Every structure is written in C-alpha cells, then in structure tokens.
Automatic annotation (TrEMBL):
GO biological process: translation
InterPro entries: KOW, Rib_uL2_dom2, Ribosomal_uL24, Ribosomal_uL24_C, Ribosomal_uL24_CS, Ribosomal_uL24_KOW, Translation_prot_SH3-like_sf
Segments forming domain KOW: 4-31
The protein's role, per its UniProt record: One of two assembly initiator proteins, it binds directly to the 5'-end of the 23S rRNA, where it nucleates assembly of the 50S subunit.
Any one of the GO CC terms: ribosome
CDD domains for this protein: KOW_RPL26
Gene Ontology terms, MF aspect: rRNA binding; structural constituent of ribosome
Highest taxon above the source species: Bacteria
Phylogenetic placement of the source organism: Bacteria, Bacillati, Actinomycetota, Actinomycetes, Micrococcales
Complexes and interactors: Part of the 50S ribosomal subunit.
Similarity-based family: Belongs to the universal ribosomal protein uL24 family.
Pfam family, one: ribosomal_L24
Protein name as annotated: Large ribosomal subunit protein uL24
Gene3D superfamilies with a match to the protein in the record: 2.30.30.30
Length: 114
C-alpha cells in the first residue's frame, strides 16, 4: 500500500488523545506506516545523565514527539483548512523530446493540487 503522506505535509489528527489538532509532518516511516507530527503525541522520556563534548550536563526529562499510525491522520486541504483524502492525477509532460508521465497529488474535497 502506497503511503500518501509525505514529510512537510500539514495533517490533522483524527483519533487519539490529540484528536483535532494539526501539525506538520516531521518524519515518515514507511515500514511501520507511522508518521511523526510536530507538536502531536508528545511523550516524556527519561534520558541517562552524561556530559557532552563541551562539558555541559545532559539528560533528565525530555519531552518529544512520538510516531502515530498513518490511518489516524489526514492531510489538511489548503483551500478550506479541512481534512481530505488524496487522489492522484496523471499528467504527461514532454521533456527532451520524450513524453513522461508524472503523478500529481490532488485533494479529494476541493480537487486542487496539494
């Protein structure tokens, strides 16, 4: 199954403790079908104390984003700021005398390019 959400997309959370919140996709893991969204699903990690190369102390409590499943997010349509599904449109582009097919992501709600 092709993952239609890419890094840099603005998405809205559909399920879970952060339902309704929006954020930008930081990372996408295709093997586990999970995405990390900025400011969503923040968890507290306990990191071991140590020293950095400059001698400053590191460690303690670190709050960071945790990945969520791709089925729990939907891309936000830029025209009306509401979540939408994604369709693909195939266009033929002529380059160097040859025709090449390119896929363009389109919002199902408005029909505009994403």
């Amino acid at each position: 199954m092709a993952n239609k959400i890419k890094k840099g997309d603005t998405v809205q959370v559909l399920a879970g403790k952060d339902k309704g919140s929006t954020g930008k996709v930081i990372a996408v893991n295709r093997e586990t079908q999970r995405v990390t969204v900025e400011g969503v699903n923040r968890v507290t990690r306990h990191t071991k104390a140590g020293e950095s190369g400059r001698g400053s102390r590191t460690g303690g409590l670190v709050v960071q984003e945790s990945p969520i499943h791709v089925s729990n997010v939907a891309i936000v349509d830029p025209s009306d700021k509401k979540p939408t599904r994604i369709k693909t449109r195939v266009e033929t582009v002529e380059r160097d005398g040859r025709q090449k097919a390119t896929r363009i992501r389109v919002g199902a709600r408005s029909g505009k390019d994403l």
